[in-house]
Automatic annotation (TrEMBL):
Pfam families: Erf4 (PF10256). This is Cysteine-rich hydrophobic domain-containing protein 2-like. The keyword Transmembrane helix applies. It comes from Oopsacas minuta. The keyword Nucleotide-binding does not apply. It is found in: Membrane.
Amino acid sequence: MDVDDVINPLPPLPTDPVSYPQISTVPDPIRLQGVGSTTIFGLNNRFSMDYPTVLNGKVAEEEFQKTVYRINRILQYEISQNVKWLLCGCFCCCCTLGISMGPAIILSRNTRNKVQKELSYENVRLYHKIGLHWKLEKESLDDSHLRHYVLVLEFLPKEPILYPD
């Protein structure tokens, strides 16, 4: 019998992560592309309300569609206002040396902020409680320098309660 056996009678814990139970992997996030007819500064005026089958058993189809409907309602109003200011800015661009484009750029930023605020409200209201997270993310188009915004619904990882402290 060794001195270490008397002091620490428990067997050592395994240090390799393979011996611990495996936690299920987090599925890939769901990306909703814009399907509207108008895109200004990368933000489309409508997103698809089709219910992804990956969400079966996680969130009700009505709740998902209500969230996307709220986002679409914000975008429909704001993008129509942005189009008016963009056209006005383009007509006056030569006379004002480009300063007239400022309101359209500021309105586009305000639109993104309104969409992000609505998404954060929806996250707090429902989606964080069921392990999901909405966000608005900028994504590049196919092999070009153009970028557009997509709605991303991520699955939040579960807390590993089986690992020792």
